[in-house]
Amino acid sequence: MDTKTFKTMLILMISQLIAITCYGQLYMTKTGETSFFSETPLENIAAVNKQVLVMLNTGNGEIAIKMQQRGFHFPNKLMEEHFNENYMETEKYPAAVFTGKIKEPVDYSKDGSYNVSVDGILDMHGVKQNRTIKGLMVIRAAQITLTSDFDVKLADHKIDVPTLVIAKIAESIAVKTKFVLVPKRAI
Q1: Whole-model pTM?
Q2: Are 12 and 54 in contact (CB under 8 A)?
């Protein structure tokens, strides 16, 4: 992790810890999973990132998600190289970030399943987009599991696909997330 990323994450964690003492419990993971799938008649492209940092404040429903784009791994190394260099430009835009707030009331004190939606901002490839993402929250044994499926249009984040390969990459990418969060204890 570079110095700038470390400082950003440290500031975010400190602000979350302050918020915990005022509002609620902080749940987090550093091993959240995000995958995507692009289906076209010529080629299917899939990748998974299992190093996604997620923090949830149960007191106010705020959630922050950050993932390094280079954390996506593909079955084909050439696809991975093209993803990083040609499409996501990970040297220039190393991370994708989503910050938002859960809209529905959730009783974090008891086990159960909740359909939730999060209003927030997806910052990817240097473009911020307001998004509402729907998902499922399952609370069980002091653990919170969040899952969601949504689409991201490449054009919405100014991700250009060269004309030569446009038939191989879908205009809208199917994204799936699974985050298993556990309580973060204050130090």
Answers
A1: 0.82
A2: no
